[in-house]
Specification:
Layout lengths: L6 E4 L4 H14 L3 E4 L3 E7 L5 E9 L2 E8 L6 H27 L1
Helix pairs in contact: 1-2
């Protein structure tokens, strides 16, 4: 049974590229993340102790996210917000890469 109500994170038209960048960024920040644009898993160790673990699958232009494990001290809303930040960072990185290749 999921630890949070499943939620969706909007990624947009370039979801495959965005997810690839997002996974790379998550890994650089110490998150165990693997997968493709279609589906994957992640495990985020927390400095306060405990882990946030979950999975995602592509749902159109969004990622459907299910959280399987989280400490009680971390709200589902906080998790959703932080994962959305990873997507926003990936979108910005994709935009920067495209600008660099155009110029």
């Amino acid at each position: 049974m999921p630890d949070c109500v499943p939620f969706r994170l909007y990624a947009g038209d370039n979801i495959a590229e965005i997810v690839a960048i997002m996974i790379g960024e998550m890994q650089r920040r110490g998150v165990q993340a693997s997968g493709t644009a279609e589906a994957g898993t992640f495990s985020i160790p927390l400095p306060i102790g405990g882990t946030i673990a979950g999975s995602y699958s592509m749902a159109g232009k969004s990622l459907a996210v299910s959280i399987a494990q989280r400490p009680d001290a971390v709200s589902c809303g906080t998790i959703e917000s932080k994962l959305q930040d990873f997507i926003l960072d990936a979108k910005a990185e994709l935009k920067n890469r495209r600008r660099a290749s155009d110029g």
